[in-house]
Amino acid sequence: MNAEIKFYWELIKRRLPIMMVIFMLCAGVGVGLALTMPPKYRASAQLLVEGAQLPTDMIQSTVQSEASRELQSIRLRLMTRANLIDIASKFRVFVGEGTMSPDQVVQEMRDRTSFDIRGGGQNATILNISFTSGSAQVAADVVNEFVTYVLRADVERRTGESGETLDFFVQQVSELSERLSTQSAEIVAFKEANKDALPEGLDFRLARQSQLQERINLNARDRTSLTEQRNRVVEAGSRIGLPEVQMTPQQAEINRLETELRSKLAIYAPDSPTIEFLKRRIELLRTDDLPGNDEDSNEFQSMLDLQLAGIDSEIRSLEQDTETMREELAALENAIDRTPSVANQLEKLEREYAATQTQYDEAVRGRARAEQGVDVEVAAKGERVVLIEQAAVPRSPTSPNRKLIAGGGVFVGTALAAAFFILTELVNSAIRRPVDLTQALKIQPLATIPYLEEESVLRRRRILKILFILFVLISVPLGLWAVHTYYLPLDLLFEKVVDRVGL
Question: Over the stretch 379-408, which tens digit does the pLDDT of each residue have?
Fold first, then answer.
């Protein structure tokens, strides 16, 4: 057992210089990165989507979009190329910005920015904005700039949407009001043009049609009766040898006045001045001397003439009345025939007017709600994004973890050195111990004589090992310093290696 331990100890001492090189290289890189990597500060701010401050069952905002979706929309607008370049230039985020392309600036800004949206649904929606920079003040300034943009964008969005909603309903009300006026004017003009055939007067026209038809029939019977009466008068005059009755101008005037009297009696009262005047004129004409009054025949002739003149006057009056009623009846029949089509067209116009009126009422109610929504948004009483915690200047860097990086370098160096020792032993098949001889030749040696080196050779080997170790201890730090100073900073080199490997 002691021989085995001594054997491996000798192997460790023999391979120690190379293992020390591996260890020092890894540990030096780790310590160098821990010492040279610049500090990074991370500033954060929290925003909350606050619910409406007024009862939604009494007054409600017209902006009803989902909070998380709107925050995503604001984030996309904020992270545009132009905004990120302007913010990076405004706060001098990158020291070597002049040597960076715009694409690199945008990519770096996006990599260093974090938008974390949590909650939603029944829970409160919280937005956490973070930014990482080499300067604590720059990190806080950039985050506060992001917060300002989000708050301003939320206000502009909500007031803009509510204003657009109000403008839409105002335009709708104006257009529908003009349409209502036009349709109302069309209905009035249509009724005026077809007032004789409107459906609401159909019952009156039908009753009037029956009444006129009855009066026409009655006039026809009266005319027949008067015609028969006149024929009997003429026949009576011819039997007593009187010549054909001729009407004098005085008799014709009396007949005309009697006809006018009968028509006026249908309008005026019997004791009215107009009726009294007509009666006096008829009496005066009748009391005037008529030709032939001295003889009985002339007197009888005058009586017949007066009777025939009265009958003829009544017949003419009936004929005129019948003609007037026939014209009115024809107009009524035409109006009755047109009533169904007029009713259909009028109903169509009224339906269109009623539909437009319904739309107008809805638009007026929508305009009222939109005006309330604008008032709610202007007063900031609706759902809105509020700042809970403003970004403060970090007092200590959040990265890198120097102890972890240095410890990782030491650990990796130790692991690689151990792996080197184990791998060299696994691939080494040389005979170095009696047991190796027994296993290789399948024989049991009586004795083994080790290889003995001269003292000078051993001393030279020790010196070379010491010099090699000193060289490693000096050259590795100097090499890392030279790379960091004259080629590329170790932190950037480390990031390039990580990007190239794809970690």
Answer: 555 567 788 888 888 888 877 777 887 888
Average pLDDT, integer, range 126-137: 88
Tell me the C-alpha distance between 321 and 216, whole Å. Answer: 8
Helix, strand, or coil here: 34? Answer: helix
pTM (predicted TM-score): 0.52
SS3 of 304-353: the string is HHHHHHHHHHHHHHHHHHHHHHHHHHHHHHHHHHHHHHHHHHHHHHHHHH
Confidence of residue 292 (pLDDT cuts 50, 70, 90): very low
The pairing of beta strand 384-389 with beta strand 123-133: unpaired
Distance CA 440, CA 451 (A): 19
- What is the distance of C-alpha 126 from the center of its chain? 25
pLDDT score of 43: 92
pLDDT per residue as tens digits for the range 36-49? 777 888 899 998 87
The secondary structure of residue 433, as a DSSP letter, is: S
Contact 468, 476 (CB under 8 A): no
Contact 421, 15 (CB under 8 A): yes
Q: Which two tokens stand for residue 239?
A: 């039997």
Q: What pLDDT shows up at residue 144?
A: 92
Question: pLDDT (tens digit, 9 = 90+) per residue, 210-232?
Answer: 988 888 888 888 888 878 777 77
Structure tokens at 460: 């030279």
| 195 sits in which H/E element | none
In contact, 145 and 87? CB cutoff 8 Å: yes
**Quick one: pLDDT at residue 250?**
64
For the stretch 245-255, pLDDT in tens is 455 566 666 77
For the chain, the structural domain boundaries read 2-37+400-501, 41-172+368-389, 199-366
Distance from the first to the final alpha carbon of the chain: 45
CB 425 within 8 A of CB 432: no
Q: What amino acid occupies position 10? A: E
Just give the CATH number of 41-172+368-389. Answer: 3.30.1890
CA distances from residue 53 to 58, 159, 408 in whole angstroms, order as listed: 11, 16, 54
Hey, is 471 helix, strand or coil? helix
Q: In sequence order, which residues have a C-beta less than 8 Å from that of residue 268 and are 6 or more positions away?
A: 274, 275
Residue 126 DSSP SS3: strand
Cis peptide before 400 (omega within 30 of 0): yes
CA atoms within 13 A on the CB side of 125: 18
Quickly state the pLDDT bin for 355 (edges 50, 70, 90). very high
C-alpha radius of gyration, the chain, whole number: 62
182 — pLDDT class (breaks 50, 70, 90): very high
Q: How many CB atoms lie within 10 A of CB 106?
A: 19
Instruction: Pull the structure tokens for residue 201.
Output: 């007067």
One-letter amino acid for residue 298 of the chain: N
User: What is the rounded average pLDDT for all residues in the chain?
Assistant: 77
In angstroms, the CA 352 to CA 396 distance is: 74
